[in-house]
Amino acid sequence: MKTEQVGDALLETWTVDEVAAAFNRNEIILIDVRTPQEFMFEHIEGALLMPMAFFNPDKLPGQSEKRIVFHCGSGVRSERVARRAIDAGLARIAHMEGGFGAWKGAKKPYIGTNMATGAPHLVS
């Protein structure tokens, strides 16, 4: 995990493996900031959707029990959202390096769309 001090806050950049391990242990809330269309086509099972276009840090869940980790397609949007969360007063926030593309590249499981039927299915 990489960390960056941003004023009084800490921005963490987690690797795919760190996110996957913490998510499997139910230690984090994984929030996808891609568009609803991107999410519907393929997403990490159990991730919540809060598109960057509608991001409101005041509506984020608390982090008393689980850390919030954002992700997007490549890591660019999730870092922007994480910085917006810090600007809104969150003292510690994280995002996933490389985004969903890195997740798929690491062969982590996700929900995809069967192109023949249009139905969602587990890709592992």
From TrEMBL:
<protein>
    <submittedName>
        <fullName>Rhodanese-related sulfurtransferase</fullName>
    </submittedName>
</protein>
<dbReference type="InterPro" id="IPR001763">
    <property type="entry name" value="Rhodanese-like_dom"/>
</dbReference>
<feature type="domain" description="Rhodanese">
    <location>
        <begin position="24"/>
        <end position="112"/>
    </location>
</feature>
<keyword id="KW-0808">Transferase</keyword>
<dbReference type="GO" id="GO:0004792">
    <property type="term" value="F:thiosulfate-cyanide sulfurtransferase activity"/>
</dbReference>
<dbReference type="Pfam" id="PF00581">
    <property type="entry name" value="Rhodanese"/>
</dbReference>
<dbReference type="InterPro" id="IPR036873">
    <property type="entry name" value="Rhodanese-like_dom_sf"/>
</dbReference>
